């Protein structure tokens, strides 16, 4: 008791002597001599219990108890001396996070006196451990830090370059605040429901998934799920949505606003229609959509039953519908494999849609027989002018009434009115002149081949068995070599000019994206104009709206360009590839490869982003959650052996009772030249694993009670390296997106005897990586070990899902990404390693760093006396970390266990160290290091520092004798901060609705330029032309216009007519609309979308008219009745061309910075014989039915103030 009291008094002295020292703060150094004096007393008290024989060397100079406190000048002098000697290193120790306030030095040191892990005999027995610059952080580390934590040592070199801690914040400072429609769901929860495509229709956001469709009502996007609603796992934080009945995987979507339908193309080759009006009860489903023989995809979502398909037919047999488009004349074109393009005319679709639900099977048969196969149309004598490539992309050029179809390297340009092929050309713009032969083989050639095969087989039978085995061996070796060559070519030699995206802007320009990140601009005639390279990552999607072009990259970045290709802004939209984009309301929505959907303000980047970012950051406490978990990490070089059950219990079982995640890394699971060569060959074709590896996985699983308590979430094996992770069942729902990686370092960086295997996973929406390593051996190979770490850190790319027990349920989506892209979407060659982007990284394994400048006998003596402080000064890894040469900025718990290498197998105790002729010096080869989100040593868990870890246990299992290495384990206490996306989305909505500054900005930016349409009534006779003028009276903003056909009718007599709307408000085939530019006030300027050699009076056929009018200019639209006859136009022997034709045109005008619109209605009639009496003839009221155009505020904008009042007497009631 007296001894204990003396210790307490000495600590108290440091606190009471206020005149001799300043107060303690995080930035102020402690008085070194005073702390050392206290430590020396404590070491003297501990001496008898740890080293009764006293064979250890005493420190050369330790200040006595009565040593006077030095002056501030002497402290500064010694501090300068220390910094001169160790100028390249940071502070050696850094403490775990400490949240409690520090009031005295006794608070700092108190945890050390009761620390049962403090086994060091001479803490200050070396010059390096007695550094003169002793800050508060180091004192906390040296003397135990926070209660129940292990002191930590931190390497130098962190915080710069690829070793910089990734920046985190409640709101990303360099991107606009997103609207989280569907947060990133764990991949393991999305089996069978991965999203592949999105499309916007009014206030509805549609998404195609592997089991059908789902739809969000954007008017309710800020709401949460109603209580008691059953929600699919992984979608709990999503905005409420409805799902369809189960259907084949959806590959593409098209919006048909004219008929209120969504058309979807599916993997089973079918095209299906879905009504935009969602049913609200079960009876409405049956009445509107008819019966269906398919089961619901996932029960009720959002309180409504699954909605069912309408019209459906088999568009392609034994091949999927890869792409689909609705042309400017209301026809549906679909593309499939092998260059097949089919056209479905509006007349056939109209007849099928007019049938009742009971007649839908008849409608499907009728429409299936009505298609036009364009490939067959252009095949003559077995030779086709179309390339035999998969039609992955289709786009309708509504400016020029053309259709673009594209494969990987080939484009085809079509006339959507006549369905004529205009041009076939490559990605370089050169016209293709080759012809593709039919895929079916000539029967005579096939018979000849069979005959030759039969003769060769008879000849082979006559040869001996030795020749057979020789040929078999050669065949196997040749096949393996071919597979390796194909794998290498596919990874490194793939053409970077592949087309990955296609879109048409409103000025008539066509934009394509390539795998090298470039965006190519084409004119409407298929001429290659310009190429823009703003990013090196592969382009995955392109979307256009008004004067802007959005480009989504595989790295997750979104770029915004103007129509001239100038970059307006860019930001990281997702942590995965942006595979689809769609514009709806005031947002552009992006779909990521992992299934997340975010909405971005259509004016971003802009002033609104700063307002929203500030307001959301101020409310971060309302949507931030904190979680605490414990992680047990173990490493063991098993020396090609197997462990007993007791050894596994001692290593893992005894410490796993209170942890949620267990990660184990093994080295030398299996070795040998033959095994290593076979493992290397298997890696080239994506195979892994071995019998020993499976035994270890099974044995560890039994130790952890796998199935009852734990569940394996992933594993990866590379030759003799193995890593695996098990999660407790209660934590398993919050762990996912488990990806694996491997990097060989042996024999020219090609063989896995040395190297690393890794696992990456999301835990509570934060990324944690584990890397199990085995570096170069031998005492002198320090530089090689450092190089191995650098190679692993830079090249460990998580490129595929793990092969864990649950790997099958986490199957990857079928959306194809370009080679060289990892599962999270970032490219391997993007310049930043995957480990740099993780919130926490843990390195474990046999690093093979040895003890230097020490003999075998000296090391044995120090170990027997437990002089671990003295031995740590001889540790190569510690020295290299101090110098910033390896594991830069990473931390390790203070080592308080004997060296773990090298031992004789099955010899217990310290007597088991190597006693052979080599007498390898004992060393701490087996280590566990980590880095969390802290950029400084002491930091609280927050949005800016989302993952904070501390070590509660770091020890070796010295009683295990199954290998020449001892297993090591480390237990982490991890605190994780993550946002609740559902709450943050609600906060987003409240800010939009309540913030006066944001509301004022939105009102100012939602203006529509003033425009005037020259007339509201057009009468054509025979093949007359009529000029419709659209003038932009605004002198500041551009006007975007689009002319659609709201409805059409044909009449035989004065008393009967039929009014109908084609798909997507398409024009009738007999109507031709041409766009002419007329300059009003700026004579030297031309309209956007025209080439520089166009004169103001030149007619450019853009059918129907879509374009952008600059301020003070006007556009002229030429409306012409053209000759177009088809078989469908003869009904009951009467040519439909003899009938009077009437259409209602809508001129829709929007601004370039908003989705608000105004519509101008124009009535057009063509008379076969001039018997139209303008005074007496009235247009039936049903012809005036129109779609209600809505802006972002939901107000009806379908009426126009510019429509002349003198037409009121000619409209129906």
UniProtKB/TrEMBL annotation:
Cofactor: Mg(2+)
Keywords: Hydrolase, Isopeptide bond, Magnesium, Metal-binding, Repeat, Ubl conjugation
GO MF annotations, alphabetized: metal ion binding; phosphatidylinositol-4,5-bisphosphate 5-phosphatase activity
Ranges annotated as biased composition (Basic and acidic residues): 447-458
Ranges of biased composition (kind: Acidic residues): 1-11
Signal peptide: none
Region (Disordered), start-end ranges: 1-29, 43-97, 436-458, 1185-1213
Domain Inositol polyphosphate-related phosphatase: 627-980
UniProt GO BP: phosphatidylinositol dephosphorylation; pollen germination
Pfam families: Beta-prop_IP5PC_F, Exo_endo_phos2, Ig-like_IP5PC_F
Bias (Low complexity): 1197-1206
Domain of life: Eukaryota
Keyword Magnesium: yes
InterPro entries: Beta-prop_IP5PC_F (IPR056454), Endo/exonu/phosph_ase_sf (IPR036691), Ig-like_IP5PC_F (IPR056455), IP5 (IPR046985), IPPc (IPR000300), WD40/YVTN_repeat-like_dom_sf (IPR015943), WD40_repeat_dom_sf (IPR036322), WD40_rpt (IPR001680)
Family from the record: Belongs to the inositol polyphosphate 5-phosphatase family.
Record-linked PANTHER family: INOSITOL 5-PHOSPHATASE, TYPE II INOSITOL 1,4,5-TRISPHOSPHATE 5-PHOSPHATASE
Full protein name: Inositol polyphosphate-related phosphatase domain-containing protein
Lineage of the species this protein comes from: Eukaryota, Viridiplantae, Streptophyta, Embryophyta, Tracheophyta
């Amino acid at each position: 008791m007296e001894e204990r009291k003396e210790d307490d008094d000495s600590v108290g002295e440091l606190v009471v002597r206020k005149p001799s020292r300043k107060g303690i703060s995080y930035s102020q150094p402690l008085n070194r001599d005073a702390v050392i004096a206290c430590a020396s007393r404590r070491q003297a008290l501990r001496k008898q219990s740890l080293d009764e024989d006293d064979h250890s060397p005493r420190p050369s100079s330790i200040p006595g108890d009565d040593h006077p406190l030095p002056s501030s000048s002497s402290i500064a002098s010694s501090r300068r001396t220390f910094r001169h000697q160790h100028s390249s290193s940071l502070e050696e120790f850094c403490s775990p996070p400490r949240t409690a306030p520090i009031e005295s030095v006794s608070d700092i040191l108190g945890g050390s006196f009761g620390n049962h892990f403090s086994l060091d005999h001479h803490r200050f027995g070396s010059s390096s451990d007695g550094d003169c610059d002793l800050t508060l952080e180091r004192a906390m580390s040296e003397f135990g830090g926070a209660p129940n934590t292990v002191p930590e040592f931190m390497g130098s070199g962190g915080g710069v370059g690829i070793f910089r801690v990734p920046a985190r914040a409640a709101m990303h400072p360099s991107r606009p605040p997103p609207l989280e429609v569907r947060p990133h769901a764990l991949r393991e929860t999305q089996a069978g429901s991965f999203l592949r495509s999105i499309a916007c229709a009014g206030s509805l956001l549609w998404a195609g998934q592997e089991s059908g469709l789902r739809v969000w009502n954007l008017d309710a996007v800020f709401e949460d799920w109603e209580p008691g609603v059953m929600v699919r796992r992984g979608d709990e934080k999503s905005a409420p949505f409805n799902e369809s009945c189960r259907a084949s995987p959806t590959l593409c979507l098209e919006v048909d606003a004219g008929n209120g339908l969504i058309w979807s193309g599916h993997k089973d080759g079918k095209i299906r229609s879905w009504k935009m009006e969602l049913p609200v009860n079960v009876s409405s489903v049956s009445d509107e959509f008819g019966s269906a023989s398919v089961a619901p995809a996932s029960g009720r979502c959002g309180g409504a039953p699954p909605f069912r398909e309408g019209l459906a037919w088999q568009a392609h047999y034994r091949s999927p519908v890869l792409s689909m488009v609705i042309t400017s004349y209301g026809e549906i074109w679909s593309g499939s494999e092998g260059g097949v393009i089919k056209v479905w005319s509006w007349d056939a679709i109209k007849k099928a849609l007019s049938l009742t639900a009971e007649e839908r099977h008849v409608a499907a048969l009728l429409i299936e027989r009505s298609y036009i196969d364009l490939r067959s149309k252009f095949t003559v004598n077995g030779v086709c002018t179309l390339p035999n490539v998969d039609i992955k992309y289709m786009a309708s050029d509504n400016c020029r009434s053309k259709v673009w179809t594209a494969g990987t390297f080939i484009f085809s340009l079509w006339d959507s009115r006549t369905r004529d092929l205009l041009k076939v050309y490559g990605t370089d713009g050169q016209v293709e002149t080759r012809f593709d032969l039919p895929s079916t083989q000539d029967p005579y050639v096939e018979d000849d081949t069979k005959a030759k095969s039969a003769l060769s087989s008879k000849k082979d039978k006559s040869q001996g068995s030795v020749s057979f085995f020789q040929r078999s061996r050669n065949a196997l070796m040749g096949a393996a070599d071919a597979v390796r060559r194909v794998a290498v070519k596919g990874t490194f030699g793939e053409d970077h000019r592949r087309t990955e995206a296609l879109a048409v802007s409103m000025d008539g320009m066509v934009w394509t994206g390539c795998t090298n990140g470039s965006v190519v601009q084409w004119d409407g005639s298929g001429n290659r104009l310009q190429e823009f390279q703003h990013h090196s990552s592969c382009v995955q999607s392109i979307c256009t709206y008004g004067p802007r072009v959005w480009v989504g990259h595989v790295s997750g970045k979104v770029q915004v360009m103007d129509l001239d290709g100038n970059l307006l802004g860019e930001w990281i939209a997702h942590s995965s590839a942006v595979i689809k984009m769609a514009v709806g309301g005031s947002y552009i929505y992006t779909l990521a490869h992992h299934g997340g959907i975010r909405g971005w303000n259509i004016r971003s980047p802009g002033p609104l982003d700063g307002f929203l970012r500030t307001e959301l950051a101020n409310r971060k406490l309302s949507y931030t959650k904190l979680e605490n978990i414990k992680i047990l990490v173990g490493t063991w070089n098993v020396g090609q052996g197997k462990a007993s059950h007791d050894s596994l219990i001692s290593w893992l079982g005894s410490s796993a009772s209170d942890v949620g995640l267990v990660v184990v890394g093994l080295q030398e699971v299996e070795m040998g030249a033959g095994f290593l060569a076979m493992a290397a060959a298997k890696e080239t074709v994506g195979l892994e694993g071995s019998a020993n590896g499976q035994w270890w996985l099974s044995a560890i699983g039994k130790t952890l009670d796998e199935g009852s308590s734990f569940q394996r979430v992933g594993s990866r094996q590379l030759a003799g390296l193995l890593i695996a992770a098990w999660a407790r069942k209660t934590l398993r729902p919050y762990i996912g997106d488990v990806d694996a990686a491997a990097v060989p370092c042996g024999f020219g960086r090609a063989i896995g005897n040395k190297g690393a295997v890794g696992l990456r996973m999301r835990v509570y929406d934060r990324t944690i990586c584990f890397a199990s390593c085995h570096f170069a051996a031998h005492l002198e190979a320090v530089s090689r070990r450092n190089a191995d770490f650098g190679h692993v850190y830079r090249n460990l790319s998580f490129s595929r899902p793990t092969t864990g027990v649950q790997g099958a349920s986490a199957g990857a989506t079928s959306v194809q990404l370009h080679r060289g892209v990892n599962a999270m979407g970032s490219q391997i060659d993007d310049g930043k390693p995957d480990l740099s982007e993780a919130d926490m990284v843990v390195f474990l394994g046999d690093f093979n760093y040895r003890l230097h400048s020490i003999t075998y006998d000296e090391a044995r003596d120090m170990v027997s006396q437990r002089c671990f402080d003295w031995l740590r000064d001889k540790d190569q890894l510690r020295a290299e970390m101090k110098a910033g040469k390896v594991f830069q900025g990473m931390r390790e718990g203070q080592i308080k266990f004997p060296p773990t290498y090298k031992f004789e197998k099955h010899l217990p105790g310290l007597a088991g160290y190597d006693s052979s002729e080599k007498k390898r010096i004992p060393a701490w080869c087996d280590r566990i290091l980590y880095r969390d989100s802290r950029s400084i040593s002491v930091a609280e868990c927050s949005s800016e520092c989302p993952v904070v870890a501390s070590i509660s246990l770091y020890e070796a299992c010295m009683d295990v004798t199954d290998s020449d290495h001892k297993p090591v384990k480390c237990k982490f206490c991890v605190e994780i901060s993550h946002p609740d996306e559902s709450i943050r989305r609600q906060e987003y909505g409240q800010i939009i609705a309540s913030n006066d500054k944001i509301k004022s900005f939105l009102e100012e930016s939602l203006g529509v330029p003033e425009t005037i349409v020259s007339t509201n009534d057009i009468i054509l006779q025979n093949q007359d032309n009529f000029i419709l003028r659209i003038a932009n009276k605004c002198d500041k903003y551009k006007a975007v216009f689009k002319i659609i056909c709201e409805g059409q009718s044909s009449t035989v007599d004065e008393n009967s007519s039929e009014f109908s709307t084609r798909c997507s408000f398409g024009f009738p085939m007999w109507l031709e609309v041409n766009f002419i530019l007329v300059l009003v006030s700026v004579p030297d300027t031309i309209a956007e979308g025209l080439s520089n050699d166009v004169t103001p009076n030149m007619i450019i056929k853009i059918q129907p008219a879509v374009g952008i009018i600059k301020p003070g200019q006007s556009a002229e639209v030429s409306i012409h009745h053209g000759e177009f006859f088809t078989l469908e136009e003869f009904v009951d022997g009467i040519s439909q061309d003899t009938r009077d034709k009437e259409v209602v045109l809508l001129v829709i005008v929007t601004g370039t910075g908003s989705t608000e619109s105004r519509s101008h209605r124009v009535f057009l009639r063509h008379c076969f014989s001039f018997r139209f009496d303008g005074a007496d003839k009235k247009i039936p009221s049903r012809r005036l039915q129109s779609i209600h155009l809505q802006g972002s505020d939901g107000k009806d904008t379908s009426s126009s103030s510019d429509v002349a009042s003198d037409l009121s007497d000619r409209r129906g009631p």
